[in-house]
Amino acid sequence: METRRILFIGAGRMAQAMIHGLVKQQGSFAWQIVASNRSDTSRLEALRSRFGIESTSNWQQVVESADVVVLAMPPSEHPAVLAQLRDHVKQHQLIVSVAAGIGVSGLESSLPPDVAVAWVMPNTAASIGQSMTLCALGSAVTNEQVEMLTEMLQALGQHQICTEEQVHKLTAITGSAPAFIYRAAQAFEEMAVEYGLSEVNARQIVGQMLLGSANLLLTGTEPQVLANEVTTPGGATAAGLEVLERGNFMSILQEAITATNQRAAELGMGNPPKR
Ligand SMILES: NC(=O)C1=CN([C@@H]2O[C@H](COP(=O)(O)OP(=O)(O)OC[C@H]3O[C@@H](n4cnc5c(N)ncnc54)[C@H](O)[C@@H]3O)[C@@H](O)[C@H]2O)C=CC1
Ligand SMILES: O=C(O)[C@@H]1CCC=N1
């Protein structure tokens, strides 16, 4: 089995989800993972003991041994980290960023011209190998690196190679919209508990309802056809849909997608995160 070494710079939520997916993978590559962050050593210790990976608080000391460097810190930290990475990066290495708004062009313009880069937009379902990940490739990526990246992305779930522009536009839909779905799940669960279910049972019925709906959608049937099939004429669902329509449910979701992408673009241009 071939071994590849991955260095994560940034060891937060997204890095953890990716590491979880990678350590569970049983593909043709074995991943040696090193996690690093700016200062949170207890976080590194937790990742080390949970996943059996290496960690360091000084990535500069280990970067040269990495085949892949994953930038998993906030977009606003990219200029400073890329400026340091410039002095360390080696010809064979692939530099991957998962940061919203950064873009392949943001990576390429901050690194020497022949450096291979990829911009990857996963979601947190990477932790169970079920992310829908988007990926845009830089111009210097070799076939061998594509093969390695493909192995890595397959560990996280499904992926699609896109243009940079598409990743910008779809960030909200695949990266952030899971949070919108979880909010809906929360509302359903709260009602189920109010109707007398235990929290565990509420989770089970809501989770299975979402899973069944997602799987039906993946059969290829249009969402409006699926909605119609649920909506018995003159029946109960129509009353609920009427409330959603009065609240402009679909436009609200579309507004949320636009707002997310606008913010991602601002972050990618170096604006600091709002805390
Ligand atoms: N959370 C998610 O679902 C997704 C996040 N992303 C991207 O992943 C990146 C990280 O997001 P989260 O994990 O949610 O944030 P987070 O706040 O949980 O983690 C950020 C990590 O970066 C580290 N860090 C900050 N500045 C650093 C620096 N200068 N050098 C080294 N490490 C540094 C922090 O110590 C922390 O470990 C962001 O760029 C975000 O756009 C992308 C897709 C989905
Ligand atoms: O909230 C964020 O900025 C990141 C980008 C996509 C999902 N989470």
TrEMBL record:
InterPro entries: 6-PGluconate_DH-like_C_sf (IPR008927), NAD(P)-bd_dom_sf (IPR036291), P5C_Rdtase_cat_N (IPR028939), P5CR-like_CS (IPR053790), P5CR_dimer (IPR029036), Pyrroline-COOH_reductase (IPR000304). One of its GO terms (molecular function) is pyrroline-5-carboxylate reductase activity. Its EC number is 1.5.1.2. The keyword Iron does not apply. The keyword Cytoplasm applies. Pfam families: F420_oxidored, P5CR_dimer. Coiled coil: none annotated. The gene is proC. It is found in: Cytoplasm. Pathway: Amino-acid biosynthesis; L-proline biosynthesis; L-proline from L-glutamate 5-semialdehyde: step 1/1. It catalyses: L-proline + NAD(+) = (S)-1-pyrroline-5-carboxylate + NADH + 2 H(+); L-proline + NADP(+) = (S)-1-pyrroline-5-carboxylate + NADPH + 2 H(+). Residues 164-267 form the Pyrroline-5-carboxylate reductase dimerisation domain. This is Pyrroline-5-carboxylate reductase. It comes from the Bacteria. Catalyzes the reduction of 1-pyrroline-5-carboxylate (PCA) to L-proline. Residues 5-101 form the Pyrroline-5-carboxylate reductase catalytic N-terminal domain. Keywords: Amino-acid biosynthesis, Cytoplasm, NADP, Oxidoreductase, Proline biosynthesis. Belongs to the pyrroline-5-carboxylate reductase family.
